[in-house]
Amino acid sequence: MPRYLDNFTDSVTSLWSTIGYGLRARLKEGYSGGDLRADVMAGLVVGVVALPLSMALAIASGVAPQYGLYTAIVAGVTCSLLGGTRCQVTGPTAAFVVILAPIVGKFGLGGLLVAGMLAGLMLVGMAAAKLGRLITFIPHPVTTGFTAGIAVVIGTIQLKDFLGLSFDHAPEGYVDRWKAMWHARASASGWEIAVGALTLALLVGLPRVIKKIPAPLLALAIAGIAATLATKFIPGFHVATIGSRFHSTVNGHEVAGIPPLPPLPLLPWHMPGAGGGVMHLDWATIQALFPAAFAIAMLGAIESLLAAVVSDGMSGSKHEPNAELFALGIGNILCPFFGGIAATGALARTATNIRAGARSPLAACVHAVFVLACTVALAPLVAYLPMAALAGLLLLVAKNMAEARHFVHIVKVAPRSDMLVLLVCFGLTVVFDMVLAVSVGVVLAALLFMRRMSELAESKLDTGTMAKFDVPPGVRLYEIAGPLFFGAAQKAMSVFDQIQDRSLAVIVYMAQVPVMDATGLVALETVIDRLKRGGHKVILAGLKPQPAEMLERAGIRREPGKLAIAPDLDTALSLAIVHRARQPEPPAGPQATATA
Q1: Distance of CA 342 to CAs 255, 395, 410, 480, Å?
Q2: How far apart are CA 325 and CA 124, in angstroms?
Q3: Residue 141 and residue 414 in contact, taking contact as beta carbons nearer than 8 Å
Q4: From 6, 192, 452, 500, which residue has the greatest number of CB atoms within 10 Å?
């Protein structure tokens, strides 16, 4: 079997063995009735938090509230059972709003569901390629810039409902949205502002008084009751509600608000396209959706794995990143077939889950079942929730996301390059869109890494470093220390350009090279070829397993009189001495050390 097929098989086998790591690890330690009771209670608490948030985030993304509930239900069960964490809660999150809303405007609900499915396929591919641990190395300025920018955009989007503004079409651009709101300022409603302000006050004040009941549930319930009573007893009082804004058809009858149904199977590409028209799923549409799907996959992977790291710190457990990516991918593939939008690990809900006493992934399953039960049983009551109250909830979410003090602190103390990356990611997210911001952010992350690697690389000629070895005349001894990555390979290899004489043997000592990538391999191949053409015998010594395997796969093998591979430095020196004895006396020269 070809080597690439062997590697693919090994990768699939390794990934398969980690699926469901979080649940299997917990059950292996033992699972009692007390653990089940703790999970049930934690799941109920998280479900109470997730219920209003899921609807609010769906509305903010430009779709009906039930699609957010379907996401919490399907992704909540799938990702918890297949994932690599014990207490992670998956569902719709605020981070996705900035990506999803423009997709709905351009491609409709059908395009949104297809984009989520494509993102799921990408996430499964990332898991198969074992990229889980690499995602966590995205630089902090990149993720902070994204988060702060998303918070600003979400807060801006919510102002329309919070103030009760009325305009026909909500522009996608940040600046254009502010212009539209300014032109519509005369339509602002004092009643809407009062309901939104009441909700905000309750969200901030209730946690200081009542600890056991989540504030969003109480705040929205009070706001809904207050708005209903005011509509009945105060002349002229009117606010927009979920029931007045959204309608659905059940068995031929129109229902205000959300339908009292569980998520039912459907084909994503049969859902309405742009403007409510028919969606045409063809190659051109897939190409157009691909950049947005990539942004969903990357942002989802980053947010989910960062939430998993926080979960580990809070619960004292350990997650399996590739299993988490795989589960997230499967969840995002399944969600569209039940009307669910894109999902990822939700940090706030995960933290709530742990604080409520969750012991295993079953708590997240209970949360999904609770949301399902409420979707079916409480659908008529949901219709009374004011849109301004949901906007107030998301304004608080945006405020917490922004972490303004942390953002300002990084700007003040971070190196100039990090500060520039932070501001670029923030600005692109706010002024343009998340698709562009994620694409540029990933490139900036790679550039930052290359810069760090190049700063660590050092090449110098040092005749004293190898003085303790008895290096005979006509032998040049070089040491390469450090990983031969793309950021440092060329700089590390530049020291070999200093060889001008007719040395008979050049020893390249690589015992301190733990890993080498394709760029390092090409750089090393170039040096070996140039030295051989110059009449030198090259001896590679002390190769670690990973570089040795790469050289073997590249076809770099022993060539009598030209290339030798020695297990250690002593053997390499012996080979060089034997080779020297068979050749005319060469001129003496210095030794060198190259450090990468």
Answers
A1: 25, 21, 30, 46
A2: 7
A3: yes
A4: 192
In Å, what is the CA distance from 530 to each residue of 75, 260, 310, 423, 533? Answer: 56, 74, 50, 44, 5
Q: Rounded to 5 degrees, what are φ and ψ at 225? A: -65, -45
Q: Do residues 343 and 335 touch, judged by C-beta distance below 8 A?
A: yes
For strand 593-595 and strand 458-460, is the pairing parallel, antiparallel, or unpaired?
antiparallel
CB 96 within 8 A of CB 324: no
The pair of three-digit structure tokens given for residue 176, joined into one six-digit string: 């254009």
d(CA 164, CA 187): 7
Question: Distance (Å, rounded) from C-alpha 460 to C-alpha 481?
Answer: 12
Q: Does the pLDDT value for residue 461 go beyond 80?
A: no
Amino acid residing at 17: S
Determine the residue type at 467.
A
Q: How far apart are the first and last CA of the chain?
A: 36
The tens digit of pLDDT for each residue in 103-142 reads: 998 899 999 999 999 999 999 999 988 888 777 667 778 8
How far is Cα 67 from Cα 56, in angstroms, rounded to an integer?
10
- The 3-state DSSP class for residue 578 equals helix
CATH assignment, 458-595: 3.30.750.24
130: left (phi over 0), alpha (psi -120 to 50) or beta: left
The tokens for 11 are 């990768």
pLDDT of residue 454: 61
Q: Kindly report the backbone phi and psi dihedral angles of residue 510, in degrees, each rounded to the nearest multiple of 5, phi listed first.
A: -125, 25
Measured from the Cβ of residue 82, the count of other Cβ atoms closer than 10 Å reads: 22
Strands (E), 293-420: 344-345
- Catalogue the E-assigned strands of 210-318: 247-250, 253-256
What average pLDDT does the segment 517-525 reach?
82
Residues 6+ apart with CB under 8 A from 590: 461, 463, 476
Are 40 and 364 spatial neighbours (Cβ–Cβ below 8 Å)?
no
pLDDT at 254: 86
Helices and strands, number each (H, E), in the chain = 24, 10
**This prediction's pTM:** 0.76
Sequential DSSP letters for 490-512: HHHHGGGGG--S--SEEEEEEEE
Pairing mode, strands 253-256 and 247-250: antiparallel
Q: Where are the domains of the chain?
A: 3-448, 458-595
Q: What number of residues does the chain have?
A: 596
In order, the DSSP letters of 135-156 are HTTS-HHHHHHHHHHHHHHHHH
Longest dimension (CA), the chain: 109
User: Please, are residues 313 and 276 in contact by the beta-carbon 8 Å criterion?
Assistant: no
